[in-house]
Amino acid sequence: MTLENGRETFSTVLTVDDVVTVWINSIQTTIKKSTCKLYMSVMNSHVLPVFGKRKPDTLTAVEIQYWINRLLANPLSARTCNIIRSTWSTCFDWAVGQGLIRKNPLRGVRALRDNPKPVRALNREELKCLLDVAKSGRYYPFEQNDFGEYSQQEVVVVVTLAARTGMRRGEVFGLRWNDIDFGTATIHVVNSLGPDRELSAPKTLTSTRNILIDPNTLDLLKWWKAYQKVYMKNFCGITEHKKNLVFTTQNGTPVSVDNFRCRQWKALTEAAGLSGIGFHSLRHTHATLLIAAGVPVKVVSERLGHKSVALTMKVYVNVLPTMQQMAVEAIQNMTKNENAPSAVGAADKGQGDEK
Known about the structure:
By secondary structure, the chain is mostly helical. It has 2 domains: 3-108, Orthogonal Bundle (DNA polymerase, domain 1); 124-316, Orthogonal Bundle (hpI Integrase, Chain A), CATH 1.10.443. 54% of the residues lie in helices and 6% in strands. A hairpin with a 5-residue loop joins strand 5 and strand 6 (199-200). Helix 2 (33-51) packs across helix 4 (78-97) and helix 6 runs antiparallel to helix 8 (215-235). It is globular and about 75 Å long. Belongs to the 'phage' integrase family. Residues 14-96 form the Core-binding (CB) domain.
């Protein structure tokens, strides 16, 4: 322990490993479990094996930048490298504030240029094909019994609901029956199911929202609720769900969102000729179809739970030219009975003025 400007620090005693341990123990009760697990995974998998035994004050920005640049060619994506950098920097910022280290060398480390592959929205034909394949059940080796039928039917409802509401994957699987107001045809998005199968608040403050649903979707959810109730009672002996989830495993437990992605979703998209399409594409499909149909961007933004209309316009800028064309057609329809000024008459009037 040393003294700096009359203030005690531990920079000559603690290692990076020590700092990370203290940091995780201090913040784990104030952040989501999924976030804490992400932090631990990033540090344990990448940072600590290389820098764990080092003293924080011996590290330099140049050294860390060189290491991160090499990770990119290792190969990790720029996005992953930036997550490593930001997580480590968050840890060291906290440590500086607590007086555990004198400076954060990550402050001098540049983020890597990230050019993420844009999420593709499905067109109407592709979405119909996806749902048709889902209804067929021939894309996945479901058990040929009631358990398999339950899983197959659930996938159909999951995909349909996501495409018709724009809800995120975690929001769909975190939906509870008491979050649906069947009287007003409204879904209250208040939870998200994480990889740990635990419910937590949605991604952002504006992600907590109300989504009005159409009659067909409402009827589908009513049917699924009745189907699930009969299935759980007859085949699982469950009459009341503790978490009251809309979507569950065959045994009534929360779904593993990662298992769903790697198994059913992957098999479904491949069978539909849409290999590589992520579940998030359903959210983009919902927004794109609404914008293309002339729904105001503000309404679309509210349904998606975006923090601002500007974000929605930025994400869906490729759809906006369609709206411009629709605006032109609307103006044309409003003025189709009006006669344009005569060019000859205007010219004659001008000549008269000159006289």
